[in-house]
Amino acid sequence: MTKLLAALVPLGIVGMIAFFLFTGETGDRLFRGRSELGDAFSRRAVRSEPPNRLGPGTRGLENAAANTVTAIVLDYRGFDTLGEVTVLFAAVAGAGLALFGRRRRRGKSAPGTPSSLILTAAAPWVFMFLFVVGFAIVLHGHLTPGGGFPGGALLAAGLVLLMSASGHESSARRLHLLEGLSGFAFVAVGVAGLVWRDSFLAHFGDAGALGAFWSAPVTILLYLIIGLKVSAELTNAVRTLANVEDPTTEEMP
Amino acid sequence: MTWIILLVCIPLVVGAVAVVTVRDLLSAIILEGVVSLSAAVLFLVLGALDVAITQAVVGCGLTTAVFLYSWRRLPEKAREVSHD
Amino acid sequence: MNVVHLVAISALSLFGIGLYGLWSGRNVLRWILAVGLMETGINVFLVLTGWYPGARVPIITESFSTSGPVPFLDPVPSALVLTSIVIGLGTTTLALALAILHARSHGTLECEADPETAEVLE
After folding, report:
1. What is the spatial distance between Cα A147 and Cα A230, in angstroms, rounded to a whole number?
2. What sign has the CA pseudo-torsion A218, A219, A224, A229?
3. For chain C, how far is it from start to end, CA to CA, in angstroms?
4. Which of A8, A43, B63, C44 has minimal CB crowding within 10 Å?
5. What are the average pLDDT values for consecutive 10-residue runs of chain C, which has 122 residues?
6. Phi, psi values for residue A70, rounded to 5°
7. Does residue A38 belong to any structural domain of this protein?
């Protein structure tokens, strides 16, 4: 395909979409910014009697997460999160399967040339910082922005940093075990919600006061599970691509 | 406020054009990290903070690391500059 | 033409530039980079649909009345984009694994049309 045609076709598509969006009703409705759904979730109006004023310290809510996005990811659209966890697992497992087949992983990720001085000197300190901040983001998902996904990604980034600096890696077996256990634990919490309340992934227990750390216990639990799972999975994803070597006949240590 | 938003959109689009036009593959990988970073700043300015942290860590941290690791594992011949 | 329109145009143009990148060569790694650009563009567009001037971060830090509309950024598309970004990394990993396999078996990252398949199609 010539360069001109390749440039014109996306331009045409984008122009058409922009035309439909900026003239007429579709654009006005799309970019209104507020939606009734978002408002309802923001106001916890799914309860039968919403409180009149919502603020720190409010009790008696069905989900006392101060971070509205957390409430949507874990409570109101929790099933989508289960689907996301499944897709991530399938993608990383597929990458490992494509590269290694049924063989055990060979080779180490130690670089052929030694790492630079900056990397080897700074990696332990930066890793400590990333580890602490990552766990803090995971655990405070219901109060501050963040949660399991960015916190888990930050933890994975710390582990990848260690791996690239020194070549020592955390044990692959343990990470795979952690990943599998977290997935199982997520479904177990969902079934507990089915047993205690009326539906899968329903939140049980007293939600507590809005804004306190020990509020929304199921939210904390689920985000901890997701944080561990995402960190293990993303570390495995990077490790899969880092460990590709020509096959040998050695056993994995 | 609005001028910050418009200011952030400039490296977003310019970086994207650079990714598809640069000859060197390594530069394209790094520029993809730059595009992710400006997208993360855009999310920050718009007020979606969770998305901003996630985009910053995943887009310009882990994605670049994954690309560079796979670059390292390519055979020597495959790393040459592509001609269209 | 306000701010929302301009940012929407940049997000859509990111999508279009990525689409152009898919057609501008045969290098598999460039294709993966271009698809990543498209994903980023769509993610920005999705979050933008919940924004309006004056939208605040969707975290309840002070008390507000629940009888009227709440001045938050719409949290629903924000929640969807959150998972989309992490899944993008997973699919990029899978695509790169396949690209490495292709490069190792063919010796190059270029992707030619398979002559056998071309014969069968004609």
Report:
1. 11
2. positive
3. 50
4. A8
5. 85 92 86 95 92 84 71 87 93 92 81 63 51
6. -60, -45
7. no
Distances (CA, A) of C92 to A25, A125, B70, C86: 36, 29, 11, 10
How many angstroms separate the CA atoms of A182 and A7, rounded? 46
For residue A169, is it within any domain? yes
pLDDT of residue B50: 93
Q: How many other CB atoms sit within 10 Å of the CB of residue C19?
A: 23
Within A106-171, residue ranges assigned H as helices are 117-139, 148-166
B17 has a chain A CB within 8 A of its CB: no
Domain count, chain A: 1
Q: Pick one of 1.10.260.40, 3.40.350.10, 1.10.287.3510, 3.55.10.10 as the CATH number of C3-55+73-121.
A: 1.10.287.3510
Residue A147 lies in a domain: yes
Q: Is C49 on the interface with A (CB under 8 A)?
A: yes
- Residues of chain B with Cβ-Cβ distance to C14 below 8 Å are 12-13, 16, 35
CA of A44 to nearest chain C CA: how many angstroms apart? 9
Please report residues of A whose CB lies closer than 8 A to that of C97. Answer: 94-96, 98-99, 240-241
Q: Name the stretches of chain A with pLDDT < 50.
A: 45-46, 48, 246-253
DSSP state of A251: P
The distance of C108 to chain B (nearest Cα, Å) reads 4
- B23–A contact, CB cutoff 8 A: no
Structure tokens at B53: 């942290």
- Is the ipTM here above 0.85? yes
pLDDT of B17 strictly over 90: yes
The C-alpha of B38 sits at a distance from chain C's nearest C-alpha, in angstroms, of 10
User: Does some domain include residue A23?
Assistant: no
In chain A, which among 14-53 make CB contacts under 8 A with chain C?
A: 14, 17-18, 21-22, 30-35, 37-39, 41-45, 50-53
